[in-house]
Give the backbone structure.
Amino acid sequence: MMYAVVVGALLVSLCLLLVRALLGPTVFDRALAGNAIGTVAMLLLAIFQFVSGRPEFVDLALVYGLLNIVGTIAVQKFFRYGDLGEPGVADEEHRL
């Protein structure tokens, strides 16, 4: 019974985060909502693992969390620099 309440609360928060991701007034609100959706998904995987007794879902939750971190860093780098790659030597000479 307790797990059903927790899963229900996480699903409600997931719905609210989806609304924020779709209607967010700024792109940063959308990025934060995307990061929080990844965290809620990770929690749902961990709860499913505990209820079903299958420990391999913890590994999936950890990998999903790491991908969430890498994706968040990539989005932040893109918004700061406008590109995800590092400038080459020709690009640096062209800027001078």
